[in-house]
Design goal:
Elements lengths: L1 H8 L9 H7 L5 E2 L2 H10 L3 E6 L8 H15 L3 E6 L20 H15 L12 E4 L1 H4 L4 H7 L6 H6 L1 H7 L7 H4 L1 H16 L1 E7 L3 H15 L4 E5 L27 H9 L3 H11 L4 H13 L5 H14 L2 H15 L9 H8 L4 E4 L3 E2 H7 L6 H9 L3 E3 L2 E2 L6 E2 L7 E6 L3 E7 L2
Parallel strand pairs: 2-3, 2-5, 3-4, 5-6, 7-13
Antiparallel strand pairs: 1-6, 8-11, 9-10, 9-12, 12-13
Length: 433
């Protein structure tokens, strides 16, 4: 029910005359096909559009969330989304810029298809007057013979143009080169658009701007085979402050699965957003209106030290990805650990979930503070730990440690304790039975 309640509360901003205007204001249009033609088609009535998600991991991540929210905004404008989970393309994977992908076995990919399909249900409405539909490209790909695929689809592709695609050219210029398998990925994605056009009258695809070469594969194929023009919208890449994109290929993925990225870790990630980025993040990742976001622009300009915009961003996105209760628990845990909140008021699950994201150790009953400081890495040696205690810089559960003989015990009754050196260096001690 929580998901349906969240979806039911979502609205587009009615201060915009057209959905394209809102998408552009939110920074969600990096590239598109003929914008005027697209505007007109979106204004004439409901269209069907799609976005694809390949099961190359057991969870969707932050980059996928950009696509899901773009799809949701279009759905709220009355259009019909198709969420494609690539049971076929996931067996291959799109070309990475630097190296060949490791191929996963069919059983693993099938299991990940189910996981990703279920995740889309949190962000798209599969009921109502214009429900989302889930599709799997394995349904139309698995019955193709190699000869039929080459004759019916491959003949419409020109190798010269395929070689010019950014992902392909990057790999051709790398030490690893590119296999025929990954070279053919763009043909499979083009076939997806053609099949969806034929089956569902799908006339638009959305995706990331780094996928533009694969996106245009479909529009080109439909034009060649059907003689029709269809549309694309590509969103910009969301990047870290150092210019690197978010994503599993960078080793810093923020996953939408709570087992891989906990609600607390999700909350802290957004809470740590730079002032320079936070307004853009509010536009992309929340359903706050232009007027509401303008207020947070004022907060960032006039009182940045209060971090009001970051707090709202963290709460909104954590609720969107997980639940309202998870978001509030993560907020309370963050306040209790790093602010004025009370540790004793936290639920045990919230405290333990937060501490699991910090350096931590497990003990049976108790442990000396000196040993705990070393074991958690807050101090490099026992002598350093004793000096830190003597200088008054160590606390357990926010109570200052006065002597080096002190122990860390389960004084909160939550099977966990918070060990701190200074205000920002924290660690967890878990008590196991």
């Amino acid at each position: 029910m929580a998901t349906q309640e969240t979806l039911a509360a979502q609205r587009n901003d009615d201060s915009f005359d057209h959905i394209i205007d809102e998408l552009k204001w939110r920074g969600l249009v990096a590239l598109s096909t003929d914008e005027q033609s697209l505007r007109e088609q979106l204004s004439l009535g409901a269209i069907t559009y799609y976005c694809g998600f390949d099961p190359t991991a057991p969870s969707l991540h932050l980059g996928n969330l950009v696509q899901l929210l773009t799809m949701r905004r279009l759905q709220l404008a009355g259009h019909n989304p198709l969420a494609l989970v690539g049971g076929a393309t996931g067996l291959i994977g799109d070309p990475k810029p630097t190296a060949e992908r490791t191929l996963n076995d069919r059983e693993t990919v099938a299991a990940w298809v189910e996981k990703l399909a279920n995740q889309t249900r949190r962000f798209l409405d599969y009921s109502g007057s214009n429900p989302a539909r889930l599709v799997n490209n394995l349904d139309w790909t698995q019955n193709y013979s190699a000869l039929d695929f080459l004759r019916d689809v491959g003949k419409h592709y020109r190798v010269g143009k395929m070689l010019s695609k950014d992902a392909v050219s990057a790999r051709l210029n790398s030490d690893s080169g590119i296999s025929y398998t990954e070279f053919s990925y763009q043909i499979l994605q083009g076939l997806d658009f053609l099949e969806l056009y034929r089956r569902y009258d799908c006339v638009m695809q959305t995706g990331g701007s780094d996928q533009w070469g694969n996106l245009t594969s479909g529009t080109d194929l439909i034009h060649r085979v059907e003689g029709k023009s269809v549309h694309l919208i590509a969103t910009p890449l969301i990047t870290n402050s150092d210019g690197k994109k978010f994503g599993k290929s960078e080793g810093n993925a923020i996953w939408l699965d709570g087992e891989l990225t906990s609600p607390y870790a999700m909350y802290q990630f957004w809470l740590n957003t730079d002032d320079a980025d936070v307004i853009d993040r509010l536009k992309v990742f929340t359903f706050l209106t232009r007027a509401e976001i303008s207020r947070y622009e004022d907060f960032v300009r006039d009182e940045p030290f209060k971090r009001e915009a970051q707090r709202r961003l963290a709460l909104e996105v954590t609720e969107l990805v997980h639940s309202k209760s998870d978001a509030e628990a993560a907020r309370d845990a963050s306040l209790a650990l790093f602010g004025s909140g009370e540790l004793a008021e936290l639920k045990e699950s919230a405290l333990r979930g937060a501490l699991a994201e910090l350096p931590n150790i497990e003990v049976r009953t108790s442990i000396s503070v000196v040993d705990a400081l070393v074991a958690t890495g807050l101090c490099e040696s026992k002598s350093e730990a004793r000096r830190a205690i003597a200088q008054g810089g160590v606390s357990v559960n926010k109570v200052k440690v006065d002597t080096e003989e002190s122990e860390v015990t389960d004084s909160l009754g939550k099977n966990a304790a918070v060990l701190a050196r200074g205000k920002k260096s924290l660690a967890g001690v878990f008590f196991v039975k």
